[in-house]
Amino acid sequence: MLTIRNVEILKAIVEEFIESAEPVGSKTLVQKYHLPYSSATIRNDMAALEEMGFLEKTHTSSGRVPSANGYRYYVEHLLETKVEDSVKHEMQVLFQDRSRSLNEIVQKSCEMLSELTQLTSVVLGPDSPYEALQQITMVPLTSSTVTVIIVTDKGHVENKTFSLNKGLSMEDIQACVGVMNDLLIGTPIDQVATKLEIDVRPILAGRIKEHEQLFNAFLDAFMKFACNNVYFSGKDKTMYSPEFNDVNKLRRLVSAFENSQMWQALSPIDEDEGVTLKIGTDLPVGLTNDVSVITATFKTTGSRKGRISVIGPTRMPYEKVVSLVEYVSKNIEEIFEEEGRHKR
């Protein structure tokens, strides 16, 4: 149980470290934050906070830095969320622009969020488990090229164009499409790759000589559904943070940006959970412990939902980021609700 004094000291340390990126000592807290306690008292409380797991002591300084639990406590109990009126006005211009499609508004919101926070933002569209394969159609373009159109029950489309190289005929592609329509229609998009491997591949191997080429091409097309609903903005902004001067940490971060499945794993369990913070060990394997992710969920249509997140160092300005993520997600949800009412 933290005392009022513990909370004051923890809050000051978190805010000072966010600003300076330097370990915080008792002298700074007395001089800069004018805490009405002696340096000795503050040092004792800092030691207690460290023992409770809210602070950590670095090897290079006598000062302390917030731990993951310290940041989490700060976000959950000490934040005062507020978006400046000038920022609200700027974003409302976007939200009220009916010349843009819903997808454009969501992507532009992601870009603005990245600019306002100077961090990386990512939007995940509606979850693929809510979509199922509806139809695969083959359309000949020329005597040597054909486009295959893949459509989901939610109207999402992916095209794949094939050149009829040596060993591959129009009949081969037609046969492949026929097998997939027989076996895959109605399959949730996130399960298609597995069924391709288990159910479709053996049949193609028995009917089509160049089956491996076709199989890989279709697999790539289906995988794009999972990637296309992940939109990043400002990847470079997080990379320039001092925390990622370490080449190995930077390499892991860059690799994480390319892994759409990792961002799907960051979804809040409950759509009514509001803004969530994932930090350190909360994050999927592959992300460095120096990263925090602030996420909010927004409803789109029916039971479908999307998510918008900001990714940055654990030393990010949480008050600003949480306020903006919450504000943006609520406005996006309102736009989808309004669009739904107009369609009814």
Helix count, DSSP H or I runs of 4 or more residues: 13
**How much of the polypeptide forms β-strand, as a percent range?**
15-25%
Number of strands: 10
Strand order of the largest sheet: 7-3-10-9-8
| Helix content class | 40-55%
H-E string = HHHEEHHHEEEEHHHEHHHEEEH
Query: Structural class, judged by helices and strands?
Result: alpha+beta
* Major sheet characteristics: 5 strands, antiparallel
Low-confidence stretches: none
Give the N-terminus to C-terminus distance in angstroms: 52 Å
Q: Estimate the mean pLDDT confidence.
A: 83
Rounded radius of gyration (Å): 25 Å
Please state the overall shape, judged from the principal axes of the Cα atoms. Answer: elongated
Question: How would you describe this structure to a colleague?
Answer:
This protein is 51% helix and 17% strand. The radius of gyration is 25 Å and the shape is elongated. Helix 1 (4-20) crosses helix 3, helix 2 (26-33) crosses helix 3 and helix 6 (102-117) packs antiparallel against helix 13 (318-343). It has helices at 4-20, 26-33, 39-51, 68-78, 85-95, 102-117, 170-184, 189-207, 211-228, 235-239, 247-257, 260-264, 318-343; strands at 55-57, 64-66, 120-124, 133-140, 145-152, 157-163, 230-233, 276-279, 291-299, 305-313. It is built from 13 helices and ten strands. The strands form three sheets. A five-stranded antiparallel beta sheet has the order 7-3-10-9-8. 33% of the residues are buried. The mean pLDDT is 83. It is of the alpha+beta class and 344 residues long.
Which features does this protein show?
344 residues; alpha+beta; 5-stranded antiparallel beta sheet; 3-stranded antiparallel beta sheet; 10 strands
